[in-house]
Design a protein that fits this description.
homodimer; three-stranded antiparallel sheet; 7 helices; elongated; DNA-binding
Chain lengths: 242, 242
Amino acid sequence: MPIYRDIQAELLRRISTGIWPTGTTIPHETALAAEFDCTRTTIGRALRELASAGLIERKRKAGTKVIARSGRDAIVTISPVREEVRAAGQDYGYALVARDQGKAPEAVRAAMGLSARDTVLHVQCLHFADGQPHQFEDRWINLATVPAAKGQSFEEISPNEWLIREVPYSRARHVFRAARPAEQERNTLRLAPDEWVFVVERVTWLEASAITYARLLHPADRFQLITRDPEAMRQSPPPSAE
Amino acid sequence: MPIYRDIQAELLRRISTGIWPTGTTIPHETALAAEFDCTRTTIGRALRELASAGLIERKRKAGTKVIARSGRDAIVTISPVREEVRAAGQDYGYALVARDQGKAPEAVRAAMGLSARDTVLHVQCLHFADGQPHQFEDRWINLATVPAAKGQSFEEISPNEWLIREVPYSRARHVFRAARPAEQERNTLRLAPDEWVFVVERVTWLEASAITYARLLHPADRFQLITRDPEAMRQSPPPSAE
DNA sequence: CAGTGGTCTAGACCACGCC
DNA sequence: GCGTGGTCTAGACCACTGG
């Protein structure tokens, strides 16, 4: 175990056991370096990660303080549908529902920050798990950013997977909510009469230009999102909740 | 701007523009240090953050490769209800519904990893936004870990806020899903006849011992969770999606 | 303006894991 | 084995900001 990890663990212990309660100004880097018998660089590394994890706040001259974590961060990993289904030990299936090029509706333009004259590709498709509809993907792709999408039929590969391959990096924003399904959605997903859908909305950007906006609808009766703690320091893994 | 940020930006550019497509092995730290005329330490810092952001993968001897970001991480910040309501510009209200000490039901014991003889405190309460029910909090507190909870009536302060104050730092696991409300929940939250609830489930631990298990129920018609990107490198802030 | 964190260097040794 | 990343040192200068 690297030294800076040991130091992190010890500092974390002092915070979590109340030795350094919220608001405490902890010793300077120099003092800590002396205590742990290492260089200030190493202390700095340990503290930097604690700071980015939101446990402490560092200000020049003012020093380092333990801050109140009023909000809790949770990390949701949103895997491609295929992997998600496979990971659950189910068979994956895919079907294209519709593909259409043109103008985006106002709501989509707003979400993607497009002007009225931008053209987009609208793709609707369905992902199956063991033959059951698992996710309805309703997606708009900005053709200005990803012109290559024009040449893709999306009959064999889902826009989801194709985009992952095509666009190496992007920034994303997600919204999670539950909603009443529209008629088409209810039928396509074969929902129970009173069943709602769990919606994951996602907008991604490449640098400053929008790539795609997607609404991913799941039968709410058999879907949930599980999060993990913001990692950074993994010392005592949380006991498996099963 | 620090040098390592400049380097990150340049490397990011090479990745996002396809100069280094997915799968590329990029130059060694030593080579990059020569190119950018700095030390290997500085290159290492730049690369370390790109790696933790999931853009590259580093292996000794094998080198550093650009990887496909199949899964996208999103960070959800779950604020205390009071703050959440206040942030929305609404009036916050609180009411205790029930408080009861005893054994936990099997499902709760399993989630918290408790044995059959552990005693827990069961608290139900309601949070209001502008007089409307906003969240129904159904919570179990492990009295072995937080004995001080026995002395709290929770008539004035919600368990949520009290625990944040009481337990300095802890680890959490969340589950998000949508569910049909039980009869009591439907009435308490004054839901529309067909309305579902958006459920946030949370288990928190202090080190290895469970602190609390909570089910936070929201009227699905007026609730959503918004995520932000895993930070690390903030260069071009995402265009505001409004 | 003085103390604190932020960054960087030049070098070193080590540990992992392909070949 | 041996090349690569992982960590650490000892020191330096700088930038911010609170007193």
